[in-house]
Amino acid sequence: MATELPGFVELSLQAALVAAAALTLLVSYRVIQGPTVPDRVVGLDTIGTNVVAIAALWAMLSTQSFFVTVSLVLAIIGFISTITVARYVTEGDIIE
């Protein structure tokens, strides 16, 4: 089922992978040095989103559907963790 991607598509996907990885590294600075807890939470959410994007881009590049499943699971875990941390930061408790 492996199909060959056109050259410009493969180059675009590789450029997007590099950009997503670089942005993840830049956002990690905000997570480490963030002046407030919400800044760090937003940074962690951004890192999670970038990891999902990297997994999806890798799935397209390698034509392996397994990484699509990985990206979907990571997106679900990221969404639940973001809601949980946001609720803890705003209300001080997760479950009432």
Describe this structure in words.
The protein is mostly helical and 96 residues long. The chain has a domain at 35-90. The protein has 3 helices and no strands. Keywords: Cell membrane, Membrane, Transmembrane, Transmembrane helix, Transport. One of its GO terms (molecular function) is sodium:proton antiporter activity.
Distance between the amino and carboxyl termini: 50 Å
Q: Report the sheet-strand fraction.
A: under 5%
- Sheet of most strands: none
Mean pLDDT score, rounded?
88
SSE order:
HHH
Class based on secondary structure composition and strand pairing: mainly alpha
Q: Estimate the global geometry from the Cα principal axes.
A: elongated
Please give the radius of gyration in angstroms.
16 Å
Helical region count? 3
Topology:
Elements: H1 7-33, H2 37-62, H3 66-91
In short:
Pfam families: MrpF_PhaF. With 96 residues, the protein is mainly alpha-helical. It is built from three helices and no strands.
Please describe the structure with a list of short key phrases separated by commas or semicolons.
mainly alpha, 3 helices, single chain, sodium:proton antiporter activity, elongated, 82% helix, 96 residues
